[in-house]
Amino acid sequence: MEPGIDRSPATTWRVGLAGGLLMAVTFGMVRYVYGLTLPGIRAELVLSDLVLGLIAGGTFAGFLLALLLSTRLSATIGPRAPTTLGGLCATVGCAVVALAPAPSVLATGALVAGGAAGWVWAPYSEIATRVVPEADRPRVLAVVTTGAAVGLIVVGPLALAAATWASWRWTWAAITVPAAAATVLNIRWVPRLAPAPGMPGPRAALGPRMTAPLGFAAVLFAGATAYFTYATDSAERGGLGAVAGPVVFALVGTTGLAGLWTGTFVRRIRPAPVAAVSLLVLGAALAMLGFGSHSLPVVLASAVAFGAANTIGSAALPIWTAQLVPDRPAGAFSAALVVGSVSAIGAPAVIGGLVAHVGLALPLVATAILCATSAVVLAAVRRL
Predict the structure, then answer these.
(1) Residue 239 confidence (pLDDT) above 70
(2) Disulfide: which of 128, 216, 248, 257 matches 303 by Cβ 3.0-4.6 Å?
(3) Which domains does the chain possess?
């Protein structure tokens, strides 16, 4: 860490809280609210499953583009700049979607909003590396990542209220308020760090030791995207009504708070086993959603499993990459996010194209098998 930077406990606390709040908005609320409001969007704008899937993929394309640009912006202005831009994208993008008169405008707003988390997540790995003492970094990174779970806890009841008394548009409009507030807090609480032009990008961190976390990121993002995009739709197709989606998302957020203990899990059994277990549980959650969407207890059990698995797996990823590439933690984490984002772009588009021909259950179960198989392979590779 560079000299002249305030590394007091108060700064550590503010950085963790500011990052957690911004992740709560950009990742927990903005990035996945599309799947939560998908049935209402389909009904009002009369869109096919293929078009809805393409728009969902577009939100992750925005995430990938922002992720690639965030490294360059950090190197020229400083890592706080992309996090601030991410908050602004969340605010503006949600406002555009809320007011969208046509599918093209909605897709544009969703792409801008979807990119918000890409501007925020990786730069916070750099901020933690340069500001937070080494002993506190796993805890701070876990708090930042678990902020997404807090956002899901909020967005579920918010969407339920909007579906009960208004339209899906009010859900997107309401998110602009916490998005703007989190942006302001990020500016006030996160220290302004100097640019680091010499900091290598994602490509410089690639190597044989990154094979396992890159593969894990690809499968984790594909499974999580499939779940978040189609959980509400699957529950409603199974006859559970409009209340199912918001309840599922709120439950996912609540159990996702388990991510706060990821640092402890990693210290006890190391990151790779934590990643393997999270993929195995994620596969079980997708299988339950595919086979049991007609049963409320099964859907709720699926949400419980998914919430814990997704957040713990997501929190383990930056800790894992930082341990494997300690001299380039931000670049290594960015590389994993790039691979995961490419996977996330294709997953909803492929599933959306299959739904019209084979229904929704089969693609979800196929994704579950992919997650479970990858967990076994990861565990076997680590033993070897």
Answers:
(1) no
(2) 248
(3) 9-383 (1.20.1250.20)
